[in-house]
Design goal:
Helix content is about 35%, strand content about 20%. The protein is built from three helices and three strands; from the N terminus they run βαβαβα. It is globular. The protein starts with a strand and ends with a helix.
Length: about 90
């Protein structure tokens, strides 16, 4: 298991457009992923669950991965979350 924390800096949080891009990115990896820190844990490979997590600006999320490409997946997702500006 590998995990890393990142703060959501986007003023509108993780809304539909960046969430759908994150889902697309997460599905490039084979490991199991979880994002925690919102209202509930979320599977970043599932758009509805990701949106239901209610991740807003200022939330510190933990991205965790379990599997063969866990490190690459977690690092890529954290980079993406920290780069969202819209």
């Amino acid at each position: 298991m590998y995990s890393q924390q990142v703060t959501v800096i986007n003023r509108t949080g993780l809304h539909a457009l960046p969430a759908s891009r994150l889902v697309r990115l997460a599905n490039e990896f084979s490991c199991q992923l979880t994002i925690t820190g919102g209202q509930r844990p979320a599977d970043p490979k599932n758009l509805l669950r990701l949106l239901a997590a209610g991740i807003c600006q200022g939330t510190i999320v933990t991205v965790s991965g379990v599997g063969e490409d866990e490190r690459e997946a977690v690092d890529a997702i954290c980079r993406y979350i920290s780069s969202i500006r819209d």
